[in-house]
Amino acid sequence: MSDLTQTETPPQPFANRALDPKTLATVALVGLLLVLPFGAGGYLIYSLSLCFANAIGVLSVSVLVRYGGEVSIGHSFFVALGAYAVAILEKQAGVGFFVGLPVAALAGLVGGLVFAYPSRRLSGIYLAVSTMALALALPEILVHSERFTGGFEGLYVALDPLAGLPKAPQRYYLALALLVLVCLALARLRKSPQGLALLMARAHPRAAEAFGITRGWARISVFALSATLASMSGAMVAVASSAVSPNSFTLWSAIFLLVGSVVSLNGLTLVPALVGGAFLTLVPNYLAGAGDWVPVLYGAVLLGVTLAVNSASDLRRILTRGGRP
Amino acid sequence: MTAIENRSVPQRLRAENLRLSFGAVQVLKDVSVDLEPGRITGLIGPNGAGKTSLFNCLTGLYRAQLGRIAFGGVPLETLPPHRRAALGISRSFQHMALCPDLTVLENVMVGLTLERRSGWANAFLPLPSGTREDAMARRKALAALESLGITAVAEILPAELPPGTLRLVEIARAMAGNPKALLLDEPAAGLNAVETRDLMRALQRLIRPDLVVVVVEHDMDLIMQLCDRIYVLSFGQIIAHGTPAEVRADPEVVRIYLGGDDD
After folding, report:
1. Tens-digit pLDDT profile for chain B (263 aa)?
2. A117 in any annotated domain
3. Per-residue model confidence (pLDDT) at position B3
4. Structural domain boundaries of chain B?
5. How high is the ipTM of this complex?
6. CATH superfamily, with its number, for domain B1-88+179-263
7. Disulfide: which of A162, A198, A233, B193 matches A56 by Cβ 3.0-4.6 Å?
8. Domain range holding A275?
9. Residue A51: inside a domain
10. A180-183: which pairs have CB atoms within 8 A and are 24 or more residues apart?
11. Which residue of A has its CA nearest to B152?
């Protein structure tokens, strides 16, 4: 036992992280995205701003999957909550994104809590279906409260977050900054007591109770957190696309958020988030010429990813065990 | 070791006349146990005797229909598991309940959840108070791993470790929060002879004058060598209790363990 009890050299907090190739690659990618607007066309910059905003939405679904073990097909509701918070604040109070974003986050948090509390005992397909009810009800609510939401037409979001600076680059950089900050915050969550507690509650809810982690707390927290992120994504989507309308927040948007999360393998770091965001934003934009084939191509990619991931774990097992069962 | 000095008067964990049934099946029939601090109490009995049910009544996963449970005079019957945990009752699980996504050290840190005060702001932002608390929790978790001699596996995921080590990790997690009562549900299940011996040594090192330790086990040798007192359960009733020597000499125990069709 003596070899086991020997304390290793004290861990050096940043020594490993700086040399980690994954971290280096992410930093390089952020660097590339930072200089991209100087060489790229306006349409790409616009699409990428939306992609970053949607990537946060994908992360919100991935948080629910990773930390809660649950699936939502209604996150468009919370995205819309954030988007309309920004748009309505601009129209009614004339305030811009920097007031709108915190209000949107708060709206998402409250909305998430209000939904999560009564549904804290639901899980699996039942929770998914009840979130779907949110997504289905949403367009009707938006159309009927026309006085605030502008009905079918929706609302414009015209105020520049940073007055006086060119429109396209500031949206791009704001969306990128928000996405990077969300990724950093999520990386920290993973190491935090709350993050550990949520993962424990997901893996063994009854054992978690023995350590003071109640199931209700875990389920409500993770849903509220996810809804808050979704609303922040919505706030950014509103600014990046300059408009909000019921068309952008249908059941399909909710399903695509989930698909984006699946395609990104529910990853909670920058690269998976970008893959998910791109799947929501860039693919449809650049495939627009394919017309009716778009859903088919989506389906094909989704199938491909799902199959590849599932067979990948099998393949790895076969390879590492040298083919033995 | 300040935590040990802060301890109040040693407390005993007592259950009186517990009765538990699932439908028509009586699992526990008027079971009373008195678990003293400073010694290891064993709980043995054939399969289905109600050992784990008694355990679950003590930790709050089951609610006994009748009977009283008290820890240091505080009645526990109506408290849910997390409230009992807050009183210092900690346990390990028969089926290992480590989180596969967390490293060994992080799993042990879960055992400190009740001590942690940092709020959600700390969960997302690198605030100094949260960072300090994290460092303290890591130190405590490492100390728990060290007390069981498994510091070397701190950064490894559970899936890569043998069952013997995982048991020790579970016990380290249960010990990390400096509990006043430690309930171990079949800690030697699935372990080989060497692992069982290591486990026994580790458990013997855990004895403190203020800590109630209860071990549910099938392994008679382990129980006889490890425990100071033993309760024998059979068909939901305590049929014998006393020192290992007394229990071994009890004719009823001999009949159940040696004379019957049980192997």
Report:
1. 344 444 456 788 988 888 998 888 888 888 899 998 988 999 988 888 888 889 889 988 888 888 899 898 888 888 888 888 888 898 888 778 899 999 999 999 999 998 888 889 888 998 888 889 999 999 999 999 998 888 999 999 999 999 888 988 999 998 898 889 999 988 888 888 888 888 888 888 888 888 999 999 887 888 888 899 999 988 888 888 899 888 888 888 888 776 554 44
2. yes
3. 42
4. 1-88+179-263, 100-177
5. 0.84
6. P-loop containing nucleotide triphosphate hydrolases (3.40.50.300)
7. A233
8. 22-30+42-290
9. yes
10. A180/A30, A180/A270, A182/A56, A182/A59, A182/A229, A182/A232, A183/A59, A183/A268, A183/A269, A183/A270, A183/A273
11. A4
A254: Cβ contacts below 8 Å, ≥ 6 apart: A72, A73, A74, A75, A76, A77, A131, A132, A135
Side chain identity at residue A191, one-letter code: K
Dist. CA A178–CA A160, nearest whole Å: 16
Judging contacts by C-beta atoms under 8 Å, the chain B residues touching residue A7 are 142, 146, 151
Chain A 189-248, residues with CB within 8 Å of chain B CB atoms: 189, 191-197, 199-200, 202-204, 206-214
Query: How confident is the model at residue A257, as a pLDDT?
Result: 92
* Amino acid found at B132: R
Reduce the secondary structure of A258-315 to three states and give it as a string.
Answer: HHHHHHCCCCCCHHHHHHHHHHHCHHHHHHHHHCCHHHHHHHHHHHHHHHHHHHHHHH
Nearest CA of chain B to the CA of A37: how many Å? Answer: 29
Q: Is residue A304 part of a domain?
A: no
pLDDT over 60 (residue A7): no
A213 to B110: CB separation less than 8 angstroms, yes or no? yes
Residues of chain B with C-beta less than 8 angstroms from the C-beta of A321 = none
In chain A, residues with a C-beta closer than 8 Å to the C-beta of B80 are 209, 214
A125 touches chain B (CB under 8 A): no
CA distance B257 to chain A (A): 31
The percent of residues in chain B predicted with pLDDT above 90, rounded, is 25
Query: Of B249, B231, B248, B245, which Cα lies nearest the Cα of B54?
Result: B231
The reply to whether A313 touches chain B by the CB within 8 Å rule is no
**What is the pTM for the complete model shown?**
0.86
Task: With beta carbons under 8 A apart, name residues in chain B contacting A191.
Answer: 134
Residues 86-115, chain B: which have Cβ within 8 Å of A? 86, 90-91, 93, 97-102, 106-107, 109-114
Number of structural domains in chain A: 1
Summarised one tens digit per residue, pLDDT across range B218-240 is 878 888 888 999 999 888 888 88
Residue A321 domain-assigned? no
What is the domain-level CATH number for residue A90?
1.10.3470
pLDDT of residue A128: 92
**Is B258 part of the contact surface with chain A (CB cutoff 8 Å)?**
no
CB B90 within 8 A of CB A220: no
